[in-house]
Amino acid sequence: MNFLILSVTAGEGHNSTAKAIRADLEECGAEAEILDTFAYISPELAKFIADGYLLVTEKAQGAYRIGYRLAEKRKVVSERFDSMRLASAALSKELVDYIRSGDYDAVVFTHPFAGMLLNAMKKRNLIGNRTVGILTDFTFHPFWEDNTANDYVVVPDKLLLPQARAKGFRDSQILPFGIPINPKFRETGDKIEARKKLGLDPGLTTFLLMGGSMGYGNMEDLAARILGLDVEREFQLIAVAGRNEEAKSALDRLAANPPKGRKLLVTGFVDYVSLLMDAADCIITKPGGLTTSESLAKTLPMIIVNPIPGQEERNTEFLLNNGCAMAVTATVPIEECIYQLLMSDVRLDAMRACIRGIAKPDSAGELSRFLLNLAHTPRMEMEKDSPAPEDEEFVFLKE
Fold first, then answer.
1. Residue 257 in 3-state DSSP?
2. In the structure, what pLDDT confidence band is assigned to residue 81 with cuts at 50, 70 and 90?
3. Domain region containing 118
4. pLDDT band of 77, cuts 50, 70, 90
5. Which residues are registered as beta bridge partners of 303?
6. 92 shares its domain with 58
7. Which residue in 11, 157, 166, 221 has its CB near the most CB atoms, within 10 A?
8. What is the domain-level CATH number for residue 128?
9. How many angstroms separate the Cα of 284 from the Cα of each of 1, 76, 78, 109, 240?
């Protein structure tokens, strides 16, 4: 069995999800290929999208927030005059031969823009492959409404069913498997043993501070404020600086002389995040879809900091509304969140109980089993020969 996974480099989440899907499919004995969609079509376009995303999310967050909200509210009157649909129709020609030549049992996509290309192909009967979209956040991004001709969409939880329907998906298309995460996050290890492996005090409450692969946010300031908290209860902190060498150097200096009764373990980019999560009682993190899904799989309560406008703000809303997280805001500083959790074991237990209700530790496994079963399922004649509605108009109402 052979599968194609289309990704788009706009941040690392979509690529990481694609790799998690591939890893699980390969564990099952299938073949899976990842293709960076726009890098294949046009390297210049791919670089523009990747660099533009980093620029606006780091340097122009206010503008990005406004643009994202406008995109959420957009109203499409006719597909013939919608620029995004016209672009999809033009670009899809670059991928048709590639997909046809691969004899793929299904095509999976981790970004709605890649799905829009497939959507255009499906509507014009240019490909006959089953297509499966993956949400990589706890919300439907703008333009998912332009993906409804694809066969299925994987959502983080059944609680997103109303959003899916509002976008135009039928219930039969919706697969509440969860955001696919690497198989190594399926199991939760013993906290005491994990702390011993890391050289930490096995008996102390442990917080894990992460800023993503690039160490976003002022991690030195956050760590200093956490360690300087005026509370009698002892605790320890793990800080992961990712590939941010400047942040790691600053954290190393802080770790060399921490406040009395505190311990700080600093790492750069590591491949043992699963072990770090096993050691922790709570994670302090940006609310990226993949990191939060991994945290949920580990039954790890969250303190959310520095969300990127748009999708990460929606992730924050979902996690707060479902009792899985606290959030640092302009009026709720990090010290207050840490203090409340240190002084209330009941609060942590309640958050863990809520997390168990929505965690999907075997998300990639569920998707793999579905795809393998799909590969063995004959296509219905109606499914094979559905007409191409070249001139049909679709009306999407404002949500």
1. coil
2. very low
3. 2-183+363-384
4. very low
5. 284, 326
6. yes
7. 11
8. 3.40.50.2000
9. 40, 39, 44, 29, 10
